[in-house]
Target: DNA polymerase IV
Amino acid sequence: MAAPVNDPAHGFCRDCLTLQRGPAPRCERCGSPRLVRHPELYRLHLAHIDCDAFYAAVEKRDNPALKDKPVIVGGGKRGVVSTACYIARINGVRSAMPMFKALEACPDAIVIKPDMEKYARVGRQVRSMMQALTPLVEPISIDEAFLDLGGTEKLHGLPPALVLARFIRTVEQEIGITASVGLSYCKFLAKVASDLRKPRGFSVIGEAEAPDFLAGQPVTMIWGVGKAFAATLEQDGIRTIGQLQKMERGDLLRRYGSMGDRLYYLARGEDDRRVTADRDSKSVSAETTFDTDLAGAADLVPVLRALSEKVSARLKKANLAGRTVVLKLKTQDFRIRTRNHQLDDPTRLADRIFQTGLHLIGKELDGTKYRLLGIGVSDLSDAGKADPPDLVDVQARKRALAEGAIDALRDKFGGKAVETGYTFGKGHRGRPTRPDEDEGPEIRHPWERI
Model:
């Protein structure tokens, strides 16, 4: 099919992909109202694709009985909401909300424990389909990515807008979940556009309209402006992006430092970041939220050991090592404590991660009760540089060999085949798992700074 030459203001139908010859409110072929029209429709090629309520959508796909019910994917009464379907969201449930508050807002919700292995498998299917469209796919998380389809029109015989519409229709038909698309000329506005009309959205923000569109939006639309910084801007009388557009760059820099630069450019729709397919991993971590608050070493240390083994398994699976060990704790009143220690050499061994975490947590065992514990490593590098022989600690090599033997047994017989004395008999919170049985996020890729 040759690239369309119809008026972009008439656009096409998202359901049957028919090009429209006029401004009728419904598709002239199938009658669908889901039409895409925009003056810059066939000139734009940078997109953000985000699956709709991903975890919940996968669960509903696999259990049709859940189709019309509010579904929350998350971790028990003391955990938080990982994803809520749109029915639950209508009732006030939001991602990262404490589970008890979510159930207060939506008492009829069906709560499902996350199945990260399944979600990762579906996420890989979607990503593979993205990579068939263009080599420039930049994953942001398991279910979303930026795509640059510039220069692919000859390959597909269609402009990017139609390629994207065909893609999300195929995802819905073949994988059984839905996704939303944001199409624009820069990453910032592509991400903004994908959030505008969820679920099953397809929104376009062109370059000519960007300043006017942004002017009326709240400052929280700008990436990096969270509640705390929004409160700072509020104190300075700044509530909308339009107010930022009227300010000088130097003034914003003096007031807010490097963040002022971001405010200045993004408020004007200026974002020159490119879509890059190869992104360095930033950290590998694992964490768990307890059913009841814990304070003593007898309770926390076994969990720390199990989480260290999870992190180690992820590092080994990804052929990575990390030099900085990071401990994370969340108190009863939701205050977060983070502590870190830099090692002399990168590691991927559970024993080194655990021993470092043990040193860090020892200083926090002051009677404070914790609802969450996490351990991770950052400053990642190739595993070839990990864990060189230690001339001071002569037992280090023996422990490393023992860990290798344990890994081999778990790989053959399952994650529960061998346990250390730290975790034996401590229940599921203190049990190590195989990498493919893991429940948590593997590798985090936070947005890079501008």
